[in-house]
């Protein structure tokens, strides 16, 4: 059922011609105890950009990458030791734009529950999993509005997830939370316990409008800078 829902939201390469630097992340889904879970990482404290923050495996596109899927799989292998052939890639969802103005494409794939993580300590300090349902029915959630550098107002989701396995809490927010929420909305087709920036009865078209407005605001700013 999840595969079917996700394929309906596949964007393919429809945004591949946008003139922004490209990046991609892998949203690794696994079934654990009959429930869908999402694998996340914590960035190494040695990294210059966003040290210690929760994110998905991923990064900037390299010249040798064929497409966004290639980028996401290569980065997942480098960061957590996930072999590309061990990922059942399902789709690419609506992209986002990070604070460096990279176009970030989320690639969704299923991995086995038995996957043994081998984090690269230069890039990743911890790896943990969260039930996907948490991103529509959280126990600890807050939101704040954020104005992009181009003046576009958007909503930032922030989740605190207490992980029993690690006996610690993780803060999941920003673009990572944005992708996790959208993934959960697509798969479950349920209304979350908090407000979102989409028309839930027209999720695909409203998410496309959200992205188009965000992109237009950045592009207008670039043109005005020129």
UniProtKB/TrEMBL annotation:
What InterPro entries does its record include? Answer: CoAse (IPR045121), NUDIX_hydrolase-like_dom_sf (IPR015797), NUDIX_hydrolase_dom (IPR000086), NUDIX_hydrolase_NudL_CS (IPR000059)
Q: Name what cofactor the protein needs.
A: Mg(2+); Mn(2+)
Q: Which domain of life is it from?
A: Eukaryota
Classification via CDD domains: NUDIX_CoAse_Nudt7
According to UniProt, the name of this protein is Peroxisomal coenzyme A diphosphatase NUDT7
The reply to whether Metal-binding figures as a keyword in the UniProt entry is yes
Family annotation (SUPFAM superfamilies): Nudix (SSF55811)
EC class: hydrolase
Query: Could you tell me where this protein is found in the cell?
Result: Peroxisome
Q: Write out the GO MF terms.
A: coenzyme A diphosphatase activity; magnesium ion binding; manganese ion binding; RNA binding
Q: Which GO terms describe its cellular component?
A: peroxisomal matrix
- EC no.? 3.6.1.77
Q: Which family does it belong to?
A: Belongs to the Nudix hydrolase family. PCD1 subfamily.
Q: Where are the transmembrane segments?
A: 172-189
